Amino acid sequence: xxxxxxxLIRTGLxxxxxxxxxxxxxxxxxxxxxxxxxxxxxxxxxPAGLAAAxxxxxxxxTAVVVEPGTHVGGMTTAGLGATDTGNTAAIxxxxxxxxxxxxxxxxxxxxxxxxxxxxxxxxxxxxxxxADLLTEAVVTVHLGQRLAAVAxxxxxxxxxxxxxxxxxxxxxxxxxxxxxxLMAQAGVATTVGREGNAVYGETLNGVQLRDxxxxxxxxxxxxxxxxxxxxxxxxxxxxxLAPNGTGDGRIQAYNFRMCLTRxxxxxxxPRPAGYDAGRYALLLRYIEAGYTGPFxxxxxxxxxxTDSNNDGAFSTDDIGMNxxxxxxxxxxxxxxxxxxxxxxxxxxxxxxxxxxxPATVRDATAAWGLAPDEFGATGxxxxxxxxxxxxxxxxxxxxxxHNCRGTTxxxxxxGLASYTMDSHNCQRxxxxxxxxxxxxxxxxxxxxxxxxxxxxxxxxxxxxxxLVPVCLSASxxxxxxxxxxxxxxxxxxxxxxxxxxxxxTGAPVQRVDVTTLQGLLRDxxxxxxxxxxxxxxxxxxxxxxxxxxxxTRAGTWLSSxxxxxxxxxxxxxxxxxxxxxxxxxxxPVVPAAGAWTVQLRWTAHANRAxxxxxxxxxxxxxxxxxxxQRVNGGQWVALGTFQFxxxxxxxxxIRTEQTDGYVIADAARFVRT
Length: 673
Description:
Elements: E1 36-43, H1 47-58, E2 63-66, H2 93-107, H3 123-137, E3 140-142, E4 147-153, E5 156-162, E6 167-175, H4 181-185, E7 190-191, H5 197-200, E8 222-224, E9 227-232, E10 260-261, H6 281-288, E11 299-302, E12 305-307, H7 330-353, H8 359-366, E13 369-370, E14 392-393, H9 401-404, E15 413-417, E16 421-423, E17 427-431, E18 434-438, E19 441-443, E20 449-452, E21 466-467, H10 476-482, H11 485-505, H12 514-523, E22 535-539, E23 549-554, E24 558-560, E25 571-573, E26 583-588, E27 594-601, E28 612-618, E29 621-627, E30 637-644, E31 651-654, E32 664-665, E33 667-672
Parallel strand pairs: 1-2, 1-6, 2-3, 6-21
Antiparallel strand pairs: 4-5, 5-6, 7-14, 8-9, 10-13, 11-12, 15-20, 16-19, 17-18, 22-33, 23-26, 24-25, 25-32, 26-31, 27-30, 27-33, 28-29, 28-31
């Protein structure tokens, strides 16, 4: 008999609210109870894990999700609402469906194959979307189930047991954790830290002293300025900087992605237990040297809220304090998480309250606070630390910088990635007598690239029935590009399709027919072919993501949400002024030459212009249209189909000359025909 929603909303530990009050959890059975069995056992309720279970259930099999913590949805529901998309044309399948459902949730519209996608969202909205997907697929999630042991027969996992004695048995397993605990206990080869550049012939791995999120003024790192013997200020590590490209065991910094608001009912930043203002002595010196910010960033996600991240040399990243985390025990990890929470809450308290901080900085910080309608169970603080990198599998194929740059391709693609090769700082130390951060890398990729199936399965001799879509086989710097939530969902779905094939044929996951797998993935809308993207969507406020293209402006464009039907988190308008001066151009990165239909989106109102000139620059020249923005709002309006060359030679320009009302710039869409 199918589970009811009520049967899916209890847990043996605590209830974790998803969205508007629904929770999709199963009581955690205790030692001595019946063993939980399913075709597919997923460890980790991250987006990858949820996508794997949902896909497997949709295919007719049975699946269960086992989550070591008490939070469902990973970072997507824990504050990372400004999605790191890369090129949105590379996001397909269930992952793209998730973002279309987010749009539908905000706009109250049905979800179709051509629905718009929204990549910025409030945490509770993302949680509600996952709740819908889990309910529809009848997926059970067991919370508070920390892994204790893995049993194997030969090279196959036969069961996993958790610390409370519960046992889960399946035919195939997916490790969807951010830490890679299941694969490690199953005897799969793993690595932690940065390889030297020489290992895979890379240029961006290992030690990297660069200028991003770096001190822009000299700051003395010693307790007594100028006296090395007096010791180092908190946050500065001892040691000598190794040459660029040198490998080590360090990993990029973690933080909490805060959901902030300026609303009157905002929750003031808490003063954490164990607060020590001395931890921020280096920051105070930086401020005294003339630094005025930013100290954190605030990217709007809707509802007057933000996804706030690290920004600057001394910010929310607790640099160097996570080194032990990847391979630590659960208890030791809890200590690391608590350390990061104390540091970041203390930082916000310091910036908002310490009298030594300039009043302008204090006032600007105190104008923000925690969103009162998010994360109520954890005091409105994010429930999960952003583990950007932990263990990585070492398998038959290791994704490297060469894949990211497109100089190496694979024939067994099961998904695309496209984000910048991105690593946060890994350490802070003394260089030339001043404090320096080391490890931050931000280097773009030329376009979407393929992720190898071999990189998400272990060596067969090590484990024949396990797939690893999160802690996949990749070098440190390649992982920095792949490690984005949309890609994790893509790979989670692809892992589930492969698992279904393995179960149906009785084959090890390493021996499923890749051609058959790829055909099934294409049928599901998964995008696995470079140059095969079927659409490029560009939001005027960045919803298209870096890699989708660029939005450039002349004059002044203002953000608004006053008229419904917009794509993403808002739309822009010209203020009905500076006619002929205000212009906005969408320049997409077209993944393949050919015929593309160009569509434009706006919000309609009687005060809009009825004669907006729009130029489409294409391979055949420039075609000009006059658009009436008083009608057809909140939908994609086709301007025509044109030939485009691959790359960024084409564009769509919205002009304002002699327009008779407000001119709107919301989003542009390029659909391959």
